[in-house]
Amino acid sequence: MSGLSPSLRVFRGLLKELREIHGTTYKNTLAYNYVIDQFRKNGVLFQVTGERQCRARQEALHLSQAYLCLLRSTREHLALHKLYHGKGDRGLAEMASLVGLRLPSQPGGKGWEE
Amino acid sequence: MLRSIVRLQCQLGSSRTLLKYCSRDPASNFSIQSNAYSSAMTERRKFYKDVSIAQGEGGVYEVHLDRRKLKTPGGKLFTVPNESLAVAVATEWDAQKETLKYYSMHLTTLCNTAIDNPTHRDKQQMITASLKFVETDTVCYRIDDPPALVELQKNEWDPVLHWIENRYNVEIGSSYNILGPEIPAATIDTFRQHLNSYNFWSLTGLEFVITQLKSVVLSLALIDRHLTVEEAVLLSRLEEEYQIERWGSVEWCHDYDMYELRARTAAGALFVQLSSEMSSVKRKLMQDC
Questions:
Q1: Which of A16, A40, A55, B208 could covalently link to B268 via disulfide, CB atoms 3.0 to 4.6 Å apart?
Q2: If we measure between CA atoms, which residue out of A65, A66, A61, A78 comes closest to residue A20?
């Protein structure tokens, strides 16, 4: 991996994140096509010469790094949320059934319910 | 009904993440919110399959969920000025699984705030609010104990301070005082002028980043591409990271906060950069290379 340029590393990271989001059909998505397009335009994929100090390329690199960070951290954050976050209270019917009771059924609905 | 909303608020953590707007004072907006987006508070099931974008009139882009056009919580049509932002927002919606987790859709939230402007603020008010952070900037507030932390602050924060002093030709000191450093009025004016050059959308994003990182210096360094998002977040959380090194990390608190901060800051930075880039300028830059 040390041989990869930073932009290629970001590119691989982005593709991996998109694959995590969409699964096997990630190649048909908007984001995938857009990413491929942008990297192609900036000469990353089919680079002939070496790294030129190009301001637009630096800008594009920073932008893609920010997007990679966004995708990655949203995924990690959601994973941690799912793992640790409380599920909140159970519904009323569920709580009643925990102690073996059942809520009464009122055919007309309770007065204060809409 | 109200009680379940409150319970849901506690459940989802800070009420700021809960609401679709990134407002700082939920109490005052609560009555509006509970009408307009009480549906946003409960978890909605994903009601669409495909997400696409389309170009509307005036060159703006819309996001379509199945056949329906996406709308903001305020009821307006959701439009963004360029394609990149539209693709990113569409990806956020596309990434949702069975339920919609609004608190993970940071770009959508930012766009909604920019479009609806629920607190009806103008540019000057936003600039004033952002500049309030200069006086209590994280990077300027130093602690004088323990010595390892003092060293760390000096090594990590001083370079950024020097960078921003050179870049903007301003004077910002750091201080060990509880009152903070004395920021000369000229510095505030320079920053004000600089912030004025951003358009309303970029300013929304920039203010969001400043509020997240609690630092104008770090936010400007990030937006000017001097720091990456990960670096900016690390510098913002320097003391916490130091304590984590010493005492260990608690995953459900430290990592959770770090990833959340990273996600929001990344979204804000992306939002600012995409809102302030003009496609014609970009084309010219590419031609120059």
A1: B208
A2: A78
CA distance B18 to B8: 9
B101 vs B99: CA distance, rounded Å: 6
> Which chain B residues touch A83 with a CB distance below 8 Å?
252
Q: Which residues are CB-contacts of A10 (< 8 A; sequence separation ≥ 6)?
A: A61, A64, A65, A68
pTM: 0.79
A77:B87 CB<8 A = no
The model's pLDDT over B82-136, given as tens digits with 9 standing for 90+, comes to 899 999 999 999 999 888 999 999 999 999 999 999 888 999 999 999 999 988 8
Please return the burial class of B13, using the count of CB atoms within 10 Å of its CB with bins 0-12, 13-18 and 19+: middle
Count of CB pairs separated by less than 8 Å, A with B: 107
Q: In chain A, positions 75-104, which contact chain B (CB-CB < 8 Å)? A: 76-78, 80-81, 83-89
Cβ of B259 and A73 within 8 Å? yes
Is A73's CB within 8 Å of B274's CB?
no
Report the pLDDT averaged over residues B56-82.
90
Q: Do A77 and B256 touch (CB under 8 A)?
A: yes
- Hey, are the CB atoms on A85 and B13 less than 8 Å from each other? yes
Domain boundary assignment for chain B:
9-22+30-116, 123-275
Per-residue pLDDT of B250-259, as tens digits, reads 988 999 999 9
Class of domain B123-275 as given by CATH: mainly alpha
Note the CATH architecture for domain B9-22+30-116. Answer: 2-Layer Sandwich (3.30)
* Residue A59: per-residue pLDDT: 86
Question: Which B positions 71-130 lie with beta carbon below 8 A of chain A?
Answer: 83-84, 87-88, 90-91, 94-95, 101, 104, 106-107
ipTM rounded to 2 decimals: 0.79
Cα–Cα distance measured from residue B139 to residue B156, given in angstroms and rounded to the nearest whole number: 9
Measured distance CA(B275)–CA(B203) in Å, rounded: 9
Q: What is the pLDDT of residues B189-241, one digit of tens each?
A: 999 999 999 999 999 999 999 999 999 999 999 999 999 999 999 999 999 99
Q: Which of A74, A78, A89, A114 best tests the B interface by mutation, with the highest count of B CBs <10 A?
A: A74
